[in-house]
Design goal:
- It is a single chain.
- The chain is an alpha+beta fold and 845 residues long.
- It folds into four domains: 216 residues, Up-down Bundle (Rhopdopsin 7-helix transmembrane proteins), CATH 1.20.1070; 155 residues, GAF domain (Beta-Lactamase); 169 residues, Reverse transcriptase/Diguanylate cyclase domain (Alpha-Beta Plaits); 188 residues, Hypothetical protein af1432.
- The protein contains 30 helices and 14 strands.
- Strands 5-4-3-8-7-6 form a six-stranded antiparallel β-sheet.
- Helix 20 links the parallel strand 12 and strand 13.
- The chain is elongated, with a radius of gyration of 48 Å.
Length: 845
């Protein structure tokens, strides 16, 4: 044995240490192949060392272990290169392992290629190993040489195609050169006896580790961890004391002889104290070295994960992503691209500054996007520029990357789907990205990709809940929400509402079928959406009716838009060439806030009333609703009946027949209904309603108590106060009235007034207990005049009040039972004799 026996010992320790470290790394085929390489190095070096030390079971056994390690080194190096470049080569892998197995089996059993050496003793007593080398040994070395040359050929082949891969191969090539030089140095007299082959193997291993580190396949703390450093510090203290033990003993013998018997205890205590001191010193040093940055990244990651898990809004997720990246990585700019709805490109959805340009996108077929679809992890632009993918990009795309000064890219992948990209510009400092920072970016990308996908799914679900499935417009529910929000936001500005009802659409479906009807609805929706554009909101209000909300539009502008839509739809089916379809027309109503309505409900009611008027006057027209000054816009050449003519005369016979039927049961109700109709019309005119609205109110007044036909006579004519049960029965006459009117479709326009005439302004009325402007204005008018006529009339349970007393009660109940504005107007009209009082009782207190 020579003096360099410590070299294989050091090499064996290094290989074993590295193998244990990589066993804790994240497992991959590349890590497994490198672990196999380290195992082969351990077999080769360890077998050789144990053979030289003549350890049990025999030197021949350790010799064959060494040869097995040597052959496996070549195979494991081949597997490492194959996994490193990412190619598939199962055939040669199986072939080489079979050849190696056969060679070792033959050599173990026969010693054909290279038999174990003979052990002889020199004259000075050293052990010498003598090999009997013959020509078969060349077969063994040829096998190892051939397997080793194959991966070198792959390095050359792939490096020539891809300059990025060529750059990554440089450490490996340097390591191979060192191994060759180390084995060649054995034959140089200067290095006689020095194990340059073993030393070169150690260097080669560290070059491979460096190549793996540059590929970000493991963390450097796996090799230099706290535990490792603590063990090294303990070892250092042990070596220190082993060398100073003699000095300590001599010091005690010379100067502390009285404690000589306790020298062992004293040295042990001193050793323990020094080891503890070194331990705490190393702990503080290593905590600062490893913990500070790791703790910062861990806390940032935890905070980010917690924040994005609490929101489903894409804007908040992207803002938090940008904040955490700038705080942790210290980059000047962050650009986050997200896949668009059509999934054909990635558009910039968020940037560091709102002033940054967002007019840049990455197409789905961009080589950059394709690279991330095929590969996981992050990408340096400087490495990407050496790839064939970069060369296939358009020059304008390359220029955009340079203009944005992008240095690093991170893919947001959910499984195999690329949902977005994060582009990082140059850093505030010029230092390179550390492995910890790259791992942090990968973790952020993983969390962000899931958050972005969940956000998109949430947005999609919200959109589906808000839109009509057939037309893609807003549905009725979300239409109401949108209208209320716009009303609240624009309470000081105008808001116009347009409703467009398709004329005779049921007949259209009967003629051409539901499928053709659905197609017509889709085309009409498209026309309306295109006409409105970004100026408003379009909804499908019901089966054949569409609504358009126009913020900051006046009535004339809304009318022009509605007319444009109506004319386009009337021409829609004329463009069909295969089959001649019925021309579709629209009846539309328009109203606005604050011009003709003071609430959302009143706005909708007015528009629906305008549509009803158009339908009754010939259809295919647009009407702007106004209680004081109705404006009708003709849509066809047919004359529309003058609005001041009583268009409901055809229903008068039906109405009087119904009121006559109740007269046979309760004569008071018949006279009362006529009186209420008179007062209601007069108050409507005083309020400023047009004649047509007054006519509707008249019809409602005549029918408002028609439901009393179903109330027992003993309750109707009871002279005493009604019990609670009887009162509940009496209250049911409102629903009964609605049920009767509901069977007369041509009269259903009076239902809002009839159903609300017993509602109170303070919300304590019946049957719906609505209040203030939620009660239709016609119902509020009926409430006042109905109560007034009841008070001044004789009833079975009371005598008539005087007009003054009745007016006083109305004044007192103003703001509670009655609309204060209408109550004041009615009182004033009675006092001014604008409204003539019927059935007066002047002298009753």
């Amino acid at each position: 044995m020579n003096n360099y026996v410590y070299m294989p010992v050091i090499a064996l320790c290094c290989y074993s240490f590295l193998l244990m470290a990589f066993m804790a790394a994240k497992k991959s085929k590349l890590i497994y192949s490198f672990s196999l390489f380290l195992s082969a190095m351990i077999l080769w070096t360890g077998g050789s060392l144990c053979m030289r030390l003549l350890l049990l079971p025999s030197f021949q056994f350790w010799y064959h272990v060494s040869v097995l390690g040597l052959t496996l080194m070549a195979f494991s190096f081949f597997r490492f290169i194959v996994e490193f470049i990412g190619c598939q080569d199962h055939f040669f892998s199986r072939l080489y392992i079979i050849i190696i197995s056969i060679v070792n089996l033959i050599n173990i059993t026969t010693g054909f290629f290279l038999a174990p050496p003979e052990v002889v003793s020199s004259k000075i007593g050293d052990t010498i190993f003598v090999y009997n080398v013959s020509w078969p040994v060349s077969i063994l070395f040829f096998v190892c040489f051939a397997i080793t040359v194959h991966p070198l050929f792959l390095i050359f082949q792939y490096g020539r195609k891809n300059q990025t891969v060529q750059k990554q191969f440089k450490p490996i090539v340097f390591g191979v050169v060192i191994v060759v030089l180390g084995h060649a140095a054995i034959f140089i007299p200067l290095f006689k006896g020095f194990p340059t082959d073993i030393l070169s193997g150690v260097f080669f291993s560290f070059f491979l580790i460096y190549a793996l580190y540059k590929r970000n396949l493991f963390n450097l703390t796996l090799l230099i961890s706290r535990g490792t450093c603590y063990a090294l510090s303990a070892t250092l203290s042990l070596l220190l004391f082993s060398n100073l033990l003699g000095l300590f003993q001599a010091f005690i013998d010379n100067y502390l002889s009285i404690y000589k018997e306790h020298s062992v205890l004293m040295i042990s205590v001193l050793f323990a104290a020094c080891t503890t001191g070194i331990y705490f010193f190393m702990k503080r040093f290593l905590d600062k070295l490893f913990a500070k940055e790791d703790l910062f990244f861990a806390e940032s990651l935890k905070d980010y994960s917690l924040t994005v898990s609490k929101t489903l809004k894409i804007k908040e997720i992207l803002e938090k992503t940008q904040d955490v990246l700038q705080a942790a990585i210290k980059v000047k700019k962050v650009y986050i691209c997200v896949q668009n709805e059509n999934r054909d490109h990635y558009e910039i959805a968020h940037t560091t500054s709102p002033l940054d340009s967002k007019n840049w996108c990455i197409q789905h077929n961009n080589p950059l996007a394709k690279w991330f679809e095929k590969n996981d992890g992050c990408l340096f632009v400087r490495d990407f520029k050496h790839s064939t993918e970069f060369k296939s990009m358009w020059e304008i795309e390359k220029k955009q990357l340079d203009e944005l000064k992008i240095e690093y890219l991170v893919g947001l992948k959910d499984g195999t789907e690329l949902v977005g990209l994060v582009l990082l510009s140059n850093r505030e400092s010029r230092r390179n990205y550390s492995n910890e920072e790259i791992n942090f970016l990968t973790s952020i990308a993983s969390i962000a990709s899931i958050a972005v996908k969940n956000s998109r799914l949430y947005e999609k679900a919200c959109l589906e809940a808000q839109t009509d499935e057939l037309t893609g417009l807003l549905n009725r529910k979300y239409f109401y929400e949108t209208l209320k929000n716009i009303y609240n936001e624009n309470n000081q500005q105008s808001v116009a509402l347009v409703m467009l009802n398709i004329d005779d659409f049921k007949l259209y479906n009967q003629l051409y079928g539901n499928k053709q009807g659905d197609q017509a609805l889709q085309r009409i929706a498209g026309i309306i959406r295109a006409a409105v554009g970004e100026n408003g909101y379009v909804a499908r209000y019901n089966g054949k009716e569409f609504a358009v909300i126009l913020p900051q539009y006046d009535l004339l502008g809304a009318k022009n838009l509605a007319e444009n839509i109506r004319s386009q739809i009337s021409e829609m089916n004329k463009q069909e060439t295969k089959i001649r379809l019925k021309t579709l027309t629209l009846s539309g109503g328009i109203s606005g806030i604050p011009y003709a309505a003071s609430s959302v409900k009143e706005l909708i009611d007015n528009v629906e009333r305008a549509i009803y008027h158009v339908k009754r006057h010939g259809k295919n027209a647009i009407m702007i609703y106004s209680e004081r000054d109705p404006i009708a816009i003709k849509g066809t050449s047919a004359n529309i009946t003058d609005l001041h003519e009583n268009v409901y005369s055809e229903y008068e016979a039906t109405i009087y027949a119904l009121t006559a039927a109740i007269d046979t049961k309760d004569h008071y109700t018949f006279n009362h209904s006529n009186n209420v109709a008179y007062y209601a019309v007069e108050l409507a005119y005083a309020f400023g309603m047009n004649e047509e609205s007054a006519e509707i109110l008249k019809e409602a007044a005549l029918l408002h108590d028609i439901g009393k036909i179903g109330i027992p006579e003993q309750i109707l004519n009871k002279p005493d106060r009604l019990t609670e049960e009887e009162y509940e029965i009496m209250k049911g006459h409102v629903e009964s009235s609605i049920e009767i009117i509901r069977h007369l479709p041509s009269l259903d326009y009076v239902i809002p007034a009839v159903i609300g005439h017993h509602e109170r302004y303070d919300g304590l009325g019946y049957p719906r207990q609505i209040s203030k402007e939620d009660i239709p204005v016609m119902a509020r008018i009926l409430c006042i005049v109905d109560s007034f006529d009841a008070m001044i009339s004789d009833r079975s349970y009371k005598k008539a009040y005087s007009v003054n007393r009745a007016l006083k009660i109305i004044q007192e109940e103003s703001g509670r039972q009655f609309d204060p504005g209408l109550a004041h107007l009615f009182i004033k009209a009675i006092q001014n004799k604008t409204i003539t009082v019927k059935n007066t009782v002047e002298n009753v207190s």
